[in-house]
User: Fold these one by one.
Assistant:
Number 1:
Amino acid sequence: MKDNENLGLGLKSRAGRESCGDETSPPLARGVVLAFSVCLLTLISARGQTELQVSKAIEVVGQTKPIPVSMSGFSGEVAQVLEFDLYVQGFTFTSPEAAQYLITGSNNGSVTGQLRDPHNNSTMLSKAYTGASLRRQAHAFSDDIVLKVTGRKGIAQTKIACKVQNGANSEIYIADFDGHNAQMVTRDDTLVVAPCWVPGRLALYYTSYKLNHPDIFYHDLSTGTRRVFARYGGSNMSPAASPDGSQVAMILSKDGWTDLYVCQADGTDLRRLTKSPQDESSPCWSPDGKWICYAAKDKEHRSLCKIPASGGTPQRIATTGTPSPTEPDWSPDNKWIAYTAQYRNFEICVVPAGGGQATLLVDGEDPSWAPNSRTLIYTRRQGGGTVLSLLDAPTKQVKDVSRISGSSNSQPSWAR
Amino acid sequence: MKLTKFAKPLVLALAFTVAAAGCHKHPSGVTPLPGYAGKNKLEDVPPSGPIRPGEEVGSTGTPSNDPNSHANWGEHTDILQADTVYFAFDSSVIKEDEKPKVAAVADYLKGNTPNAVKVEGHCDERGTAEYNRSLGERRALAIREELIRLGIAPTRVDTISYGFDRPAVQGHDEAAWAKNRRGVFVVLTPPTAQ
């Protein structure tokens, strides 16, 4: 994707220095260990000594301690960007004495930056950035830091789409993941809702009421052209593109019930996957494209279900401990499903993709995973409206996204 | 069972619900929990596994009309305004005391051929966006099925869902929510009759 290019500097993909961090977790639910990231424990015995090497910190969802870093030499927007980017990916800022890593550099005309490990006095990263804006250079530097320290690709140069409310109407916008550089996508002067990125492409699906009817549109952002994708009788709702972009899941009422359907990206081969007068809503895909997960109701129980994308028997995904799950989103690394549970307020929760004990993270709704399978963007109700926020699931660190436009921003979809 | 961090708010919520049910009135700002009002306890939450597909309830659904079937027809929101049907929280079942309104709409359609009607399904804000869009459509479909049962041709009844995007009244209390959980009738008149 054009917007994810790396200023021509190239990211070297080498796992950074291993960090053990603090693995002591507060008491967990009985027998439940939620490892957010697969950790490879290698026991190396040498001369009677046993050394424990952890290739990546064990990240317990909602209970992981952030990585302490100290930063100096930056000012203004560049400092703000670096702090924001790192905070929402599990870093925290502290004094040089308490820091695990030192970040230094300057932003006189362009960004130069270094990453040092004070414990063995080694320089892990030293780079200068040119081109684009200072803001973009800062994002590129934070991506380099994240890659070096965690071995994971940073998310600072990714995009989001969302619904922007303006009076009674809403439109679709896209923006940088932090809300900056927003661009209006639709100008329909009606309701336009539920945007969904096509993975790996500059394209969206969404529902617009433009033709006096809720229809699903396909919108190519690189050419600015769009076409009606689904305009069946009743309502055409909640489109979700498959990971390879070849299929689209959606909720249709063409046959008299609101059911889950799937078809090819050219609109052909429409298949009805569920046949029930009960609820089906907000489909999403497993990263291998084999399953579609959705919110359902079976008799009295609301639950998340998954059904083979080729058709078959739905299976419940247990979300133990959380009532009324809706709006699932399956993490790109196939480990988690994030969703909204309804208590007195809406809560962002995660559960292992196979189902099981759920973990409640923060107040909010409609989560969408970042490509790093770690940060979530979600909608938070505030006053009478809504704002978008970012949540680093392992550390529960939260930051609001800059308001994109209009009175309320909601229904975020992360480009991945 | 040992309480975990996330279980505490749940228990609090349950306790709150039980307390609220006890005095038979919800304190303002408290959202009653759908399918969770003390009935489903933690242990009742079903485990992973296959579920029964396509549970049959009532009719099998009448196919919706082509979206272009009333494309250039006139729209009149005032004629059947008094017959707006109100729903219970998180429900698409037409309450008995609301059914006379649907019957009145059926009578109107019987007496005013070839006019048609568009049923708009709406929801209150207590529900997630796309869940509510589905719920709004189910409300509209429930009204459509009732009109069909009363003898109206399916081709004369269109449905549309607005979810919670077009509230009738602003506000964040039960008084506002009750007015927003609704099915609205828009009379459609053929182009020649405008």
Number 2:
Amino acid sequence: MIKNISNLGDAAMYCDFGAEVNKEINTQVIKYFKSIQKEKIDGIINLTPSYNKLIISFDLKKTNYENIKKLIEKLNVNTNNKLKSKKIEIPVCTDENFSLDIKRLEEKLKMNREKIYEHFFNKEFFCYMTGFIAGMPFLGDLDKNMRAQRLETPRVKVPKGSVGLTEQFANIYTFESPGGWNIIGNTPLNIFDSTKEKDPNLINPGDTVVFQRIEKKQYQNYNE
Amino acid sequence: MNKNYFKILRAGINTTFQDEGRKNLYHIGIPFSGAMDNRNYLLANRLVGNKPGFPVLEFAYQGPLLKYKGEKINIAITGDVNFTIKKKDDLISGNCYQTFSLDSGDELNIISTNKSVYGYLAVSGEFDLKYQWSSCSINTKANIGANGGKKLETNQKINLLKINKNSSSKKLHYINTKIENIRVIKGTNFDYFSDEGKKIFLEKEFTISKLSDRMGMRLEGLKIENIVDTNIKSEGLIKGVIQVPADGNPIIMLSDHGTIGGYPKIGVVISADYDKLVQLPPGSKIKFKEVGLTDAETLFKLYELETQNLISQIS
């Protein structure tokens, strides 16, 4: 349930679902997001679900905060329904050309690389949100002993397809971009396809993701 | 073969196609984009007789040098811009908010913006552009929009699909005014900052840094001290949000911003002041002034009325 509603500037509403980051709260956020999206409320121009917040932006020429607030408070969101979601397998190659920060992680986590991969592969992750850059999925949760901070100095360019870890999350760089996550491998899968108008994201909030380790040869042959 | 086109002899610093932007894509990580200064975008299209949503060329600081080939067309430039038109045996010094006609062989030289950042060029016709999610706005960070999502380069051609033959000569008396006080509404993390930090934010002057672009505007000034946490759990952003990272210098999110951010939000620029804010070049001094939600809504209504009034003056 929404714990608190406030305005974010004059053209957005800020729905707070709580302070913690967990699947239960995030599932509520996603259910609200999907319900509001279905309503197609006139004047709403964007919805941004995140771990435990939902931001609703609107066109101030057409509506305002009070109107949107009334509509959202009236909205009957059935939070008991099961969330519709897909299960997606993501092949990842950990070749040394791809696992840019594996040494750093070995030091920070005090764990050897095989142990790190053991904790990472063939395990179910939950997609909390997508964004920051187009299509980037925020996937949780990593085991407690796998949680490392961001790089002290972020990279100017993280290669497309890089799979990174920070704190309790894993993510995938959908295109080359600056970034500070600890990179452990690379996927040959296209996670964001800007030529698809309808469903450009392979992974959406609520989906389940399992990473599978592949050899360099499989990686090279993947898109052939 | 396209018979009406511009050849880019010099691309300028950041020349892109922009329109009204993209809606309903924040949740997959795609920002709004669109023309930075919406009023000047609307006026440019209106002057040449185009429909409101048409794409225009947006340029920053130094604009493009374009050679035109084809049937006679009208152009209009809005903002505060220095430009000339080289005709066969004439060099015309251009005025903003006025239509000029271009004949085949003419050269339009958009030299610079004056003490401002963005200017707009509209032509009486339709550019031949690729649309993505109902918009051709170029987002150079995500490579989305027309021209492969990249800014325009020298030697490229810009083709026109259609020419609007009903465009007539128009002129508007309008001068862009500068803004010094940017009005803001307190952000959702306003109380993350010390009393001194809050005072600095709402009373002291900030300087716009050179590290500003379509994604964000960085400010320099007295440091705003955070007393709670310099990070928040990542959450959505909107344009106009002012984040303060650990270094204490505010960053204002602009039209191409990342859709999610993890720095505390100290304030949000009101909608009525956005167009004027983005026109402030690096080195400008600004001060923030707090207003309430109701006042912000009224100020936006007034700003909109003023824009509509300007549009109706271009009959």
